[in-house]
Automatic annotation (TrEMBL):
Its EC number is 2.1.1.199. One of its GO terms (cellular component) is cytoplasm. Specifically methylates the N4 position of cytidine in position 1402 (C1402) of 16S rRNA. S-adenosyl-L-methionine binds at G36, G37, Y38, D53, F80, D99, Q106. It holds the Pfam family Methyltransf_5. PANTHER family: 12S RRNA N4-METHYLCYTIDINE METHYLTRANSFERASE, S-ADENOSYL-METHYLTRANSFERASE MRAW. It comes from Devosia aurantiaca. It catalyses: cytidine(1402) in 16S rRNA + S-adenosyl-L-methionine = N(4)-methylcytidine(1402) in 16S rRNA + S-adenosyl-L-homocysteine + H(+). One of its GO terms (molecular function) is rRNA (cytosine-N4-)-methyltransferase activity. CDD domains: AdoMet_MTases. This is Ribosomal RNA small subunit methyltransferase H.
Length: 325
């Protein structure tokens, strides 16, 4: 996620570079290319970078880096959940960086439908294909919609919001971002100084439309398969649900129940990651420069020699919603 005024300066940039240091000469996968902020910084620090993104609108940024850095930069269109496949044949990889969530580039384009601050079609599709947010809002039953808003957005008033949405769409389909935002504000009100009442609901819809939790889990395990012993994975996430998944991926024991002395001891899984960092957050200077960084959390780890695990969501705390595909 990049700053509004300068899309080439992503959040926690210095901290990410420190986690990957030394950077010069390394071959690094930027699995969430966006506007190319991390890729540019890594290239300027002397790395070879493979950028990956599923959003076709990133092409101008791809062209700019290709022209400036030549064969030190390679771009592959696709999802970071397949980063090991996409990076295969491009040489040994030393590190992977992932910036999870929607970029300011996407938020600032009203026609993409990510933001309730700008009127546009209720879309939210990062790949610009498939089911849109409007499809979910106008197609799900009340209970399904409420469950989605609660599980993916941690919206405590999800049931009331869902009821208002279903009532409103009986008059006419909900097709715009501001139209949906007004319905949510009418449902739960707005207190001065609080975040916009649609914040959590828009987050939930975006996550559902883009399958973001599945993508995150698949991407983490893809990085585990790709990186050799000593390789570094750095992940920046933007809300507690994502951060919980990343934390438990690096250290599975954190997600398990407390062991009982009355039960047989579980088999201890060998560690796939070492030197796992604690949560790193933005400092005061960055927060003053970019309020969007307030929820950003960086976690990183270094790959051990143990073989990669089979992909599994068990123990990672991934929200599951009954009745929603």
């Amino acid at each position: 996620m990049e700053t509004p005024g300068g899309p080439h300066v992503p959040v926690l940039l210095d901290e990410v570079l420190a986690a990957l240091a030394p950077v010069a000469g390394k071959r690094i996968v930027d699995g969430t290319f966006g506007a190319g902020g991390y890729s540019r910084a890594l290239l300027e620090a002397g790395a070879h970078v493979i950028g990956i993104d599923r959003d076709p609108s990133v092409q101008p940024h791809v062209a700019a880096l290709s022209a400036e850095f030549g064969d030190r930069f390679t771009f592959v269109q696709g999802t970071f959940s397949e980063l090991d496949t996409l990076a295969s044949g491009l040489g040994p990889i030393d590190a992977v960086v992932l910036d999870i969530g929607v970029s300011s580039m996407q938020l600032d384009q009203a026609e993409r439908g990510f933001s309730f601050m700008r009127d546009g079609p209720l879309d939210m599709r990062m790949s610009q294909s498939g089911e849109s947010a409007a499809d979910l809002v106008n197609g799900l039953e009340t209970e399904e919609l409420a469950n989605l808003l609660y599980a993916f957005g941690e919206e405590r008033k999800s049931r009331r919001i869902a009821q208002f949405i279903v009532a409103a769409r009986e008059t006419a389909p909900i097709t715009t971002t501001l139209g949906l935002a007004r319905i949510i504000e009418k449902a739960i009100g707005r207190k001065p100084g609080d975040a916009h009442p649609a914040t959590r609901s828009f987050q939930a819809l975006r996550i559902a439309v883009n399958g973001e939790f599945d993508q995150l889990v698949e991407g983490l395990f893809a990085a585990e398969r790709l990186l050799p012993e000593g390789g570094t994975l750095a992940v920046v996430s933007f809300h507690s649900l994502e951060d919980r998944i990343v934390k438990r991926f690096f250290d599975p024991d954190k997600g398990g129940p407390a062991a009982s002395r009355h039960l047989p001891q579980a088999v201890v899984e060998p560690l796939r990651w070492q030197r796992v960092s604690k949560a790193v957050k933005s400092g005061e200077a960055e927060l003053a420069r970019n309020p969007r960084a307030r929820s950003a959390v960086l976690r990183s780890g270094v790959r051990t020699a143990e073989p990669a695990r089979t992909v599994s969501m068990q123990g990672l705390g991934v929200p599951q919603i009954r009745g929603v595909a």
